[in-house]
Amino acid sequence: MSRAPEAALPRPKVLHRSIQATVHEADGAVEWRRRHARALLLGDLFVLALALGTAQVIRFGSAAAPEVDGLGVTYPALGLVLAVVWWASLQIHQSRSPLIVGHGPDEYRRVIVATFRVFAVMAMISLAFQIDASRLYLATAFPLGLAGLLVERKLARVGLHRARTRGAATTKVLVVGGARSAAQLTRWFDKHPTAGYAVGGVWVPDARTPIASLDGFVGHIPVMSASLDFAEALTVSGAGAVVVTDTEHLGHESLRDLTWQLEGTGVELMISPNVLDVSSARLHLNDVSGMPMLHLREPQYAGADRFLKRAFDFVGAATILFILAPVLLVTALAIKLDSRGPVFYRQERVGRHRAIFKMTKFRSMAVDAEQRLDGLRALNESDAVLFKIRHDPRVTRVGRFIRRYSIDELPQLLDVLRGEMSLVGPRPSLAAEVEQYSVQMGRRMYVRPGMTGLWQVSGRSDLSFDEAERLDLAYVDNWSITGDLMIMLRTVRAVTRGQGAY
What we know:
This protein is of the alpha/beta class and 502 residues long.
């Protein structure tokens, strides 16, 4: 394996002084992180105090709270202790760590785990010391506290993402490695500004001659060769973080030296495994005879056929049908009054293992929509596989409204109850679309099609076929119940905004 020239990595003391100056220039994102961490510290404490105080009012009203049986302290004192322990548990579980805040579901998972462990410890202590605390008080405090914490974290994340979208809380990154992988990483960060990183420069330590530019980013991203040492490359990029990708450009010993030289500088050091659309739950770092190895677990689609997934679908669909029954009745009446024809529209789709089933929707088009399709193909705004036009003349007045807010999809809950569909999964495909699928795309047939999925919460009809294909495959390979819950929560936001629906 090649190794960067020794001249490319300066002596630690010289590098340390150079980097400190660079970090000082790029400390805007660091300040944002500190402010966000302080906001979470105070926000968590406020939410817990509010939840425990509300539980006390619900249990005892405005009267003075009595002492806790077997403990000898009043409920306000118990609430104070619980708030401190709960708040500390959130810290112990690193739910405020900048490495997970604002990224994926792990922040919420840690909040939930921290809460349940506090509750479990409270139950064990009560049993061991025969403390008879009010069950109503505890049964109110913990659900309220957990719900409040999750809402608070969501609001904090929204604020952080908005700031990052404006570039106010974004850390510039120096990519150490090859120009090709750096271009891929740059496009990824450009597409996901809420991640909080933007590539400010690329340093190829084993390149002897200057590199003109990064492919696709002419004049935008400086690409530096070994003619500059690492400290100079970091200064040019203005980066507060370093991402090492394609480690053969650096070598094992030089990478180790780099970690030593960045020690105490405040500059983040990350190593990109160059894998996309793979859930972190499938990645596991093992020590193999002193060598760290990143193990990639096999795809998770088999779990999507198990009892837990089916139970989740059945209970969820039945509950949603019960809650939204008035909406279904009003929609059916509006469709009947708006245009002639049936209330429901059933169309053949391809399901799990390529089984054909009839998907149920509220009718949103005129009854002769299929006959008029050939005359509209020239207006197709999608690709060769999907047919989509924004202002389809076949759509009725009621149809435009129910499509915008995905109300037309609600009868698919009946298909979920029958076991032909799932609440979350790849979008149900037409037979004509399946005929054009690649071999890789055939993997989406391993699971039931879903009412919603990554494709819907990521752009709906605005997505190209290739983008929808990538998201469907990512869902199949990385399936989990937690992921399904997150997609359903994101679906509510996507539907209420009405974006990408036509």
